[in-house]
Amino acid sequence: MSVVAAAPSESAEPPATSPARRGSAAWRPHVAVAVAALALATYVTSGLWLDPAGRGLTENLGDQAFFEWLLGYGVYTLGHGADPFYTWMLNAPLGVNLAANTSVTVYTTLFAPLTFLAGPPVSFATILTLNLAGSAFAWYLFLRRFLVRHTVAAAMGGLFCGFAPGFISHANGHLNWTAGWVAPVVLWWVLRLREPGRWLLHGVILGLLVAVGFSIAAEGLFFTALASGVFLLVRSLAPAMRAEARAAAPRVLAALAVTAVQAGLLLAYPLYMHFAGPRTFTGTGFNQFHYAEDVAAYFEYPNRSVAGWLGLGSKLAPNATEETSYFGVPLMILVVVAVVTLWRRAAPGRRATLAALSAVGVVFLVLSWGPHLKIFKDETSINLPYAALRHLPLFDSALPARFALVVAAVIGILLALLADRLLSEPLPRFPARAAWVTGLAVALVPLIPLPVLTRTRAPEPPFIADGIWRDYVSDDGVMTALPIATTDTPDGQRWQAYTMARAGKQFRIPGGYFLGPGGPNGTGRIGAEGRTTDWLFFQAAFYGTVVPIDDFDRKKAREDLAYWKVEAVFLPEEITGSHTTLFRSAVETTARDLLGEPQHVGGVLLWRIRPGVDPVALHPQGS
After folding, report:
1. What is the pTM of this model?
2. Mean pLDDT of the chain
3. Using H for helix, E for strand and C for coil, what is the string for 230-275?
4. How confident is the model over 523-535, as pLDDT tens digits?
5. What angle do CA 393, 395, 398 make, to 5 degrees?
6. Measured between alpha carbons, how far is residue 591 from residues 92, 541, 606, 623 in Å?
7. What region, left, alpha or beta, does residue 251 occupy, with left being phi > 0 and alpha being psi -120 to 50 degrees?
8. Are 486 and 285 in contact (CB under 8 A)?
9. Kindly report the CA angle at 176 between 174 and 182, in degrees rounded to 5?
10. What digits encode the pLDDT tens for the residues 455-476?
């Protein structure tokens, strides 16, 4: 069940180093790769580092605000002893099941000191940068340990896996999906389960890693487990590996039992909350047919790449955060040529590895296409395997297009194997060597990533930054910014995140960006179930629509504010939308018509709300 081939020439073990190369010299290549990965990751996220608080991700401010909120909540959790898997701070008065969301609990806890000292935006940029760099470096170490002899080959494969188009795309806001290091770290210990005499230790370690992986990227961990299963099954059935697989099976099964017990103990409460806790749900709030990969997308180029810069980018993705394949025609051709070339000269053990890798690639390629085949955005009526899987547990919560991220890892491994073969056996004729170098350059240079796009976002108003809000809201009382927080209007969630990161007195908010119950047939939905008042403010902000306000609207506002238990409402001088410019003047007009004249406090317009009192009656003259 190992990845190591049988013949010495195909061994995945690195060659023994001579005494002169041991010690510090052996670490120099690792340090060089780590520095290169960190430099490239910093380059990709450089727009955020220019001004972490004042700039946000152009394509996905909503997800960025959500993860910044989680980081602020991590400080709140440690300071108040709050439940990390259920919060009352969002979606007042019902709260949110964070275990059913991407709560990245390990990150929020580990980075709580940085969040407290520097704020959620700095922690967000730090984690995003380290995710990309750490993913590339972890894959490099994995490849160097198990599959290739040459540092250059491992570095090529590692950098591709860490900075593949799909992961650059997910750098637009996703701290979970950019944590690509989870896969090679988990796989490392999966492959070590076969070692004699260490099944208990390795089972315990793998159980710990599974718990960590679940808390950071549960969907990615599911993909890793599925890919591991396909790989090990296909490789173990290969004639050259059956004897080794039979011999290792008892140790592996015993270790997996230990892993299950260890992970089960650590994850008992979050798993309960995820599947059976309050305000949980089945499925996902996102359309699986929409978030499926277009067949043609595999042959297109990503927008944030050299090719995209040259005008060759694609428009086939559901949005800029979900360009999960986009390898280009040259690389897709090179992958097929690489498999054929490696297969012809491989020993039986290495052929088993190639067959297993190819099986993983094909399985995840087909799964990424979703329930129906889609070509150049034309969804056909052809059913695919995912149509039969989409209602099964775990598959029902996944977005099919993201299975392409595993295909990216398979391509990265194949590139490393190809480079290792070329470096191990230099081609005798210059034309052949030049052809391979040219092929690699043509396939990979267009995919070199560009920095993710950023733009300015509304500055934190003094009302929040200076703590003025504490004079207008009781401890743990409810206050909301306008417009009420959603994925498209994220500022209110940001302001709460910043106050939680500073500890001390806190306020709760209605609405927010999260996944919760309320979708069709018991599935999830994005955000809170709408009410009349938040819809009035949303359409004013998002569409610029100002509707005539009458007594019925004011009555509904009283009811909604009482339902949320809102004590204060405020509108900053600037507001930011996730994907479009918001119409602040329309929000102000609607607020004045609905709530009366505001106070001017700390750079915001403030409306104080008293239970059972008409808001308009509070400040008829703007007192």
Report:
1. 0.93
2. 91
3. HHHHHHHHCHHHHHHHHHHHHHHHHHHHHHHHHHHHHHHHHHHHHH
4. 889 999 989 999 9
5. 125
6. 20, 11, 10, 16
7. alpha
8. no
9. 140
10. 999 999 999 999 999 999 999 9
